[in-house]
Structures are given as C-alpha cells and as structure tokens.
C-alpha cells in the first residue's frame, strides 16, 4: 500500500517525514471524525481534575470498586461522561423537581436556598432537602449521613482537599431529626462553597 495514502491519527503528522504522509488526508480524517472536539473535551476534563474518574480508578488503577458518577449516580464515571456536565445539571434539576413535588415546597423557596437564603422556619424546605439528600445518596431513609458520598460530591465542587476536609468537619453532623440534619448540612455546605468562591 502506498504510504502517501495513509491517514495519520492526530497531530503526529508533524513528527514524521512529510514525504511519507498525505497531510491533507490526515487533517480531513481528523476533522471529519470530530477528534478535535473530543480532544478539547479531554483537555477540559484534565484541567478540571476529572481525569481520575471512578471508572479509571476501578477498571485501570484497581484502587476502587465504584464505577458510578459521583454527581448523577446513574452513569459510569468516564472522561467522556465527565466532560458532559450538562448531564449532571439535568440530573440535579430532575431530582430537585421530584422533591419539590414530593415535599410541597415552593420553587421560590428552593431557588432562594440555592442563592444562599435558607428559611429556617420552612418545614417543607427541610423536607425537600432531606428528599434531595436521599436521592443523591448522601443520606439514608433513616436519616444517617453517608459521609463518603457527601465527600465525593463535595470533592467535585471544591478542588482543594484541605478545604473539602474543613467543610466536612464543619458541616457534616447529625441533628435532632433527619430533616434538620439534611437542612443544616445542605445550608452549611452551600454557604461554605459560596464563601469560598467569593474569597477566591
């Protein structure tokens, strides 16, 4: 086969003898296969420290056994999945809407909470927070906190491990009731993240 007709994978064509490769065909193959887009997604994932996915830890590094995404808990956590953060947002939105329906809380109260305004006297908001925590796997039906699950989600939102530990120590504690636990933990974590973002 004529080497001039071979398409090289990626930008490696710059590293070979040009007379052996048809660079126009290589570039056409690269762009038509959408590899430029996928490469950008991979670079983004690396920059966001999403490269150490649960799937990679379990299947390649053999240092874990949980394949599921730390945020949506439905798909295997691969680089490709991590690059598509819209799926996480859709999952969170879906769970929140389910809990709004189940708890009877107003959407306005939930929106205010996510903006940092938590109404201590809104029992339906507390029920919503407990519902959401259960669906995310951070609390059990009995109201027990799953610290590992909380830390996994928190680690996706806060990159500094020291800050993650500080927030965990400050916010993760069981209160008098499951609803109070979910409410106080959610409020504490959310406000801590908002403050960290403001100080950055």
Automatic annotation (TrEMBL):
Alphabetical UniProt keywords: Glycoprotein, Secreted, Signal
Chief location category: secreted
UniProt cross-references to SMART domains, sorted A to Z: PhBP (SM00708)
Cited CDD domains: PBP_GOBP
Compartment(s) of residence: Secreted
A Pfam family per the record: PBP_GOBP
MF terms (GO), sorted A to Z: odorant binding
Lineage top rank: taxon: Eukaryota
Glycoprotein recorded as keyword: yes
Xref: InterPro entries: PBP/GOBP, PBP_GOBP_sf
One GO CC annotation: extracellular space
GO biological process, one term: sensory perception of smell
Family listed: Belongs to the PBP/GOBP family.
Function, in words: May be a carrier protein for lipids.
PANTHER family linked: GEO07291P1-RELATED (PTHR11857:SF43), ODORANT BINDING PROTEIN-RELATED (PTHR11857)
Name by which UniProt lists this protein: Uncharacterized protein
Organism expressing this protein natively: Acanthoscelides obtectus (Bean weevil)
């Amino acid at each position: 086969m004529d080497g001039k007709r071979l398409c090289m994978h990626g930008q490696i064509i710059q590293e070979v003898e040009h007379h052996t490769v048809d660079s126009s065909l290589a570039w056409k193959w690269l762009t038509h296969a959408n590899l430029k887009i996928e490469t950008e997604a991979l670079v983004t994932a690396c920059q966001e420290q999403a490269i150490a996915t649960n799937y990679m830890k379990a299947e390649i590094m053999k240092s874990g056994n949980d394949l599921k995404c730390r945020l949506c808990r439905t798909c295997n956590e691969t680089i490709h999945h991590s690059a598509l953060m819209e799926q996480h947002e859709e999952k969170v939105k879906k769970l929140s809407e389910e809990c709004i329906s189940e708890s009877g809380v107003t959407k306005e109260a939930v929106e205010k909470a996510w903006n940092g305004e938590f109404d201590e006297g809104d029992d339906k908001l507390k029920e919503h927070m407990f519902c959401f925590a259960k669906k995310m796997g951070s609390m059990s039906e009995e109201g027990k906190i799953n610290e590992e699950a909380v830390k996994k989600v928190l680690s996706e939102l806060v990159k500094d491990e020291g800050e993650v530990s500080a927030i965990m120590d400050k916010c993760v504690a069981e209160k008098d009731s499951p609803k109070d636990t979910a409410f106080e933990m959610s409020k504490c974590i959310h406000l801590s993240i908002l403050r960290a973002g403001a100080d950055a």
